[in-house]
Amino acid sequence: MAATALVRTALNATSRIAVAPPGRVAFELFRHPIRRSRVRPAEQEAHGRAVTGELVVNGKRVRVYRWGDGRRPVLLVHGWRSRASRFAPYVQGLLDLGMSPVAFDAPGHGDSGGRATTILEYRELIGRLAERHGPFEAAVAHSFGACCTLLAMAEGVPVGRFVSIAGLAEFGYLVEGFAAIMGLNERLERDLARRIERVLLPGAGDVWRRFDATRHPELVDAPILAVHDEDDDVVPYRQSRLLLAAYGEERLRLITTRGLGHRRVLSEPTVVDNVLAFLAESRSAAAA
CB count, 10 Å around CB of 139? Predict the structure, then answer.
């Protein structure tokens, strides 16, 4: 039996006896990445060329990466159980456009400290990097990173253009998707949601509404490109359809791919080319 299936069976069986122990286990599995992603061989060259630095958020050391001369900065935001090096296919293309990529490994990810992170820590990091290196001409985000970046933009972080790749729109889908993967019963799913509210994000208000990227599109003043694969089994394609419905076709362009899934879509050459072409439009628009 696979490890996930074993955990699923144990959690659901014990939940019929008492919520607290299996609820805590589910919560810890939810908030802690199972393993840290490593730099892949194909990413080594770009990763090794970066100038590295550090920030500290909530006592956690965060690794920051920079390429280029600092002009026309572009922020790259990775997703859950990922790392900044996944954007290696974009680095040279951005440099060729005269842009300067900036990225970070979130707490509990890559080469950063800590064991876990939250959307609010992502939000703080994006804001502090904007103060240090911005304003950002653009931002490119993958998966959970897209939801975090849209939150930062809605709360005032200036970004000229935004690219969402396999992006999460509804914050609540984090619980729904995790429950589906783990096969949690309804009781455990409700308990997990309560723990997120009370333990992970205390004092943050109605987190399901506040962090929903579709709620306040009027607060995001930037052209958006969304790329999503129809076969994504981690963040469903409908999440980008929700973004399209919220922001409208005049503000958001959706590119649909097939057969790439959730992770390969980020490095697919045709996707990289489309993203770079969209970002190149910023200079054309400024010159017009």
Answer: 30
pLDDT at 22: 67
How distant, in Å, are the alpha carbons of 45, 243, 265 from that of 228?
A: 27, 11, 7
Q: Dihedral sign for Cα 237, 173, 235, 2, please.
A: negative
Q: Which amino acid is at 256?
A: T
Task: Examine residue 186 and state whether it is found in any structural domain, yes or no.
Answer: yes
| Domain, as residue range, for 136 | 50-169+211-287
**Domain's final residue, options 156, 180, 201:** 201
Read off the pLDDT of residues 200-255 as tens digits, 9 standing for 90 and up. 888 888 889 889 999 889 999 999 999 999 999 999 999 999 999 999 999 999 99
Domain count, the chain: 2
List residues bridging with 241 in a β-sheet: none
The pLDDT assigned to 286 comes to 53
Are 267 and 131 members of one domain? yes
